[in-house]
Structures are given as structure tokens and as C-alpha cells.
Amino acid sequence: MTIKTRCAWVSDDPLYRAYHDTEWGVPVRDARTLFEFLLLEGAQAGLSWITVLRKREHYREVLDDFDPQRIARFDDARKAALLADPGIIRNRLKIDAAVTNARAWLEMQASGVDPVRWLWQFVGERPRTNCWTSLAHVPATTPESDAMSKALKARGFKFVGSTICYAFMQATGMVNDHTTDCFRQAELAGVDRLRGDV
After folding, report:
1. Of the residues 9, 23, 49, 187, which is catalytic?
2. Residue 59 catalytic?
3. What is the pLDDT of residue 197?
4. CATH of domain 26-188
5. Domain limits of the chain?
6. Under a CB-based contact definition with an 8 Å cutoff, are residues 115 and 35 in contact?
7. 187 is catalytic
């Protein structure tokens, strides 16, 4: 039996392994999926990603499958219900940010901007494959994530610091940060396939 070598951040948790093996670093060009990751990365701030991953399905349920039009209409009562829900990360600022970000997303679309192309512009619209030999070499931020963070903040988004933006870029395949010893690094190198499109 062949033993697969994975990135050092992956634990033995089956959920974590499945996420690493099938999602992390795969290029995403579907607007709803990008919006989902933007909100989830913001929710993750200060916590481990596995914490968010374990709550992901419940997030999809209570955030109406990450529909920005519906989330943008959440009132104080809906936000209070979310704050009382143990199935998500109960942080008032993060819950408020989800609603704020949904509204900012819709404003972007209403102004004639395609969020998918707008987000991908920060890597020149093509995935970038890095060749890190160790997890210690992988940066927490880059000039590109700095630029994305600044631009998102200028559009009114919250919880979009440069570290969050770089994690978002890694998750959505804008950058391939699988380390060179990981079996997924070579599989995804140069790949730009769609994820989430029908």
C-alpha cells in the first residue's frame, strides 16, 4: 500500500484529510464558493481551521447556503439567533461582518464588477504554484494578499486582514502552497480547473 505524504499541517482527522486532499489549493472560479470561503476565513480568525471545518455544514444551514442576497437582509433578530447558536463561532463582530460583507459583495456586483475576476486579479487571474520544501517556508502574508486586503477594506469588507486574505488565496487555489513533499503539490501544479460550477 502506498502511503501518501501530506502537508505537515494536516492531522489524522478524516475531515481534515479529505479537505486537504480534495479542496485546499484547487482553483475556485465560482462566485458563491469564493464568497463562502471569504466568510469562513474571516470566522476562522484567531482559531484553527479544523474548528471552522467542523462547523462548516451548520454554517451553510444557518447562512442560507452562503447566499449573499439573503445574508445581506439579516436583521438584529437573525443576528441574535446566530449569536446564540453553538453550531457556529459565536462572535458578535464576526457575525456582523458576515452581513456587512454580503452587502459589500452585492454592492460590488451592482456596480458592474464581477467578484470572481476582481478577486483573481491579485494573482494575475492565474493560479501560482509555489515550491516550498517545508511548512516553515510558507508565508503568512504576501504583497498580493496585502493588496487584496487593502482593496477589500476600501470596499467596506470586514475581517479581511492580509493573513486572512492569504489563507483565502491558499484555500481557493489562487496559490498552490502544498509543500513539495505533498502528493497534491504536483497534482495541482499548473492546474486551473473549475470548482463549484454547474
Report:
1. 49
2. no
3. 35
4. 1.10.340.30
5. 26-188
6. yes
7. no
